[in-house]
Amino acid sequence: MILLIDSGNSGQHTDLLHEMFKVRCDVFEKRLNWNVKTENGYEIDEFDDHDPTYVVSVCDKTGEFRGSVRLLKTTGPNMLADVFFDLLGDQPMISDPLILECSRFSIRTDMPHQICSLTGYNPVQYTTVELLLGLIEATQRAGALQIVSVFDARMARLFRWLDCEPDIVGTPLRFGKVMAYAGLFNASDEQWRCIAANADIEDSVIGQRPAILGSAPVECRMTP
To answer: Is residue 23 one of the residues assigned to a domain?
Structure first.
């Protein structure tokens, strides 16, 4: 199940946000060895201060965190414009209210097999599909039509597997040890159905957190 967390409801999901930043640290610093800023086991960057929407996958039975991805407006600060602008070369910067940027795609790898779903799919694969569907649904809810993302060869292989390859914009470049690409994805119903077929999903993935783990709103700080 997908939850959409933003500045309007972040105080109700403090535990999920802290778990998200921990998993981001595990994925990007410890596992992928990216040059990211971490502190006390959390990975938080300057773009987390610009009112993103977090697309968060949780267990539909327990509400436990499984994975997340971040959505930002391309009309404000974002990673393509402010960090990876060299990927665009001579092409104009992407700044359009109809295009959102996604970044920081990360998934827990220690999920017990099949604990959160009645399907027989690998939980990491299922969460991947669910997050991508949540991205499309969140983008549509925001009134946008496309998603731009900077991704590496690992994610490029994943997109091919799911038959949702983007239109590459600019020219791929190597950043350190990582080959980076910028691509545009259509947030269309057709694309949603194509990705959903990989996990036999038929209905919207966005839902409400199980009440058993609900908590009263508390102060939510974006730094540990």
So the answer is: yes
Helix (H, G, I), strand (E, B) or coil at 79: helix
| Domain presence at residue 223 | no
Q: Tokens 């403090």: give the residue.
A: 14
**Cα 105 off chain centre by:** 4
Residue 124 in any domain: the answer is: yes
Q: Burial level of 172, CB count in 10 A (0-12/13-18/19+)? A: middle
Q: What is the pLDDT along the chain (224 residues), one digit of tens a residue?
A: 999 999 999 999 999 999 999 999 999 988 888 888 899 999 999 999 999 999 999 988 888 999 999 999 999 999 999 999 999 999 999 999 999 999 999 999 887 655 555 566 788 889 999 999 999 999 999 999 999 999 998 889 989 988 888 999 999 998 877 889 999 999 999 999 999 998 899 999 999 876 543 333 333 333 33
Residues 6+ apart with CB under 8 A from 91: 169, 170
Domain count along the chain: 1
What distances in angstroms separate CA 160 from CA 153, 165, 175, 207, one per listed residue? 11, 6, 22, 28
Residue 218 forms part of a structural domain? no
> Which residues form the domain of 32?
2-213
Greatest pairwise CA separation for the chain in angstroms: 52
Q: Which residues pair with 152 in a beta bridge?
A: 180
For residue 63, the domain's CATH number is: 3.40.630.30
